[in-house]
Each structure stands twice: as C-alpha cells, then as structure tokens.
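INTERNAL TRANSFER SHEET
From: sequence group
To: structure group
Subject: KIB1-4 beta-propeller domain-containing protein

Please process the attached sequence and return the structure record in the designated field. Keep the field labels unchanged so the import script can parse them.
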Amino acid sequence: MNGGNLKKHRVLKDDNSLKWLNLPPEIWLVIISKNLNNTFDVIRFRSVCSVWRSLIPPRFLSSSCTHLIPDGKFLLFIQTKIYWLESSCLSNKGYIIKVEESKSGKFRHLDVLTNTHISHKHPFNVIDLMNLRVKELCQSYTINYSKDGGDFTKFKPLDEVYKVVLFHEEGLGQMVFALYKDRKLHVSNIDYNNFMIVDDGSRVYDDIILHMGKIYVVDNSGIIFWIDCSSFKLVQYSPSLNSDGLKKKNLVTSKRSLFVVELYLKRTKGNICKLYIDVNLLRVGENSSEWICVRDLGDALFVLGKDSNFSLIAEDYHGFERSCIYFDCKGKTSCYNLKTSRLKIVDGIFGSCPTLFKCGNKN
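Return from structure group:
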C-alpha cells in the first residue's frame, strides 16, 4: 500500500490511540470495518474516535423484520444473541450474557434460560467493552405481534409460540418455522407471504433446531425428522425412542452430532417440596438407525433455554461443570450431573461479567 498521500489524523492525544489512527485508511475501512460481525464489534470500532464513527453507522435491529399473516396480525421477529465475554483483567475464563437489541440501539439484558428481562440496580450503568473480548455464540428469535403493524413499542410477545427458527435457502427465500405451544409446527415464507402447518395430522412435536444446514424436529415419541424445505415434507432421520410422551425432548447439536435430552420433572405426592427428576441423554448413531445412550459428555456441557439449546466447553467458563445439563426448573437454574445423576440449584451462574458495566450518569 502506498502511504505517501495518506493523511495522519490527530484526533486523540493518547499515544496508543494515535497508533491506531495512523493506520492506512485501506486497513480500517476495507479490512476492519467491513468485517465486523456483531453489534458489540460495531460499538467498539465506533468508540475509537470520530473518524472511525464516520465510517460505519450504528446497527439498529438490522436482523428484525415484520410479516403480515392471514389472520390479520403483524408479526415482528426480534433477534436475541448469546455472547461469550472474557475480561482481560480477571482470567482467561469467560462469562455468558444474552441480549436483545431495541430499535433505538439499546440493549436489554435477558436471562439465558427464561428470556425474562434482567433489571440492574444502577439505571445509568453503561456497557464497558474496553477490557472485554466478545464472541457471539448463537442467536435465536422471538415473535411479537401487533394488530396494526405500527410503532415498534406496540408489539407484544406472541405467547402461544414456543420456539422459532428463521432459515434461508437459495431459491426458496426466507422461511419461518414456528413451533407453537399446541406442539404443531407452522411454516411461513416471508417472501411469498404464505402460511401452512407441516404434517397437519395427529403428530405433535417437542422441539426444533437448525443443525448442519437443515431443520430438524423431534416428535413426542422420539422420532427425529428433517424437513425438505422445497416440499415441506418430513424425512425420518432416527428410529423411535418408543416414548410414552411424558418426557420432554430437547434437541441439542454438539460437535457435529445431534443429541436428544429427555427431561421429566414431577412433584412427589408425599412431599410437594421434593422433586422427582428423570433425565436421559441420547445421540443418534452414525448410520441414523440406532440410539446411543450417553453417560459422559467429556469436557462439554449442555444448556437448555427457552428459545435455544446449545453446547459449551466447561473449562472456558466461570462456574460451569463438565458433563452437566443446565436448565430452568420451577424458576431455579438447575444443574444435572450425568455422571452422578444428581441435581443441584446453581442460581447466579448466568450472572453478568463483573467488569461489563461502568457507572454512568444522567448527563
């Protein structure tokens, strides 16, 4: 690169800042600003100086969209993201945070398992990204609705929807797969404004997931199907678990394999404070013709959330244990150890990174 005609911007007096500012424009415009993958990256880039802020605009709900369905409701698909945060001044282990970005660009801190809004004691706290490394782990969507499709603030959560997957396939456009609480699977093509129920019969589903570029669902008997998006036909992927339907089945993808977590919770008759729990973890075999019972996840762990399930490596995070399954149990964050078959309450494990916020003020 020819630096003979490049201007040297002296916006900030800090020596470290000057080193950044003196980079050739080809680097910060083409290589850096064009490869910012998430909102936190954009915020950090724009915070360096006014010159860098002028290169790219703030990102406001770029992944959200509205959609009119046949019953006259306008649906708003809002993206939430789970991030890994590592504090450079604490240790090399990370924390998990789940955020939803409002139309104004402000973040709402959500509980990883339940999606409930987490309020903070100091209302003027602001996010401090200066000493944090940030990496996006996964994303999910929630559906809000409005009768007139007007102001963003008028949209309310669509409670009858259990889980949503947005999926784009070349030539078919953007599709929305929504698993309702009646356990029926609805699909809509946003580009063509059509709407249908997949396999409109007696079959009901427990979970849906995007895995290796395909949409998978599991029914209440434990059969996994993948969906042919060109015809919306179900293609059987696994044998049945011969389940009686009482155990909730959760799909998790980890290390290119597809797992099912069977979960059954019930209060005992003799003592309402005592909880009976039955957890089974199974993996589909390589030839998709058998189920393999899993007793040990090695260094991995599973998290079962309201709108997304995912896998983590335990040693990369504060407070997490290997070969465990984390989920919400009667409003409590619970940890089930596969090796010991024991359940314990671990409230606070999804708390914020201690250095995430710095105290701001009204002015």
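Handover comment: The CA atoms of residues 224 and 238 lie 5 Å apart. The longest strand covers residues 132-146.
Transfer complete.
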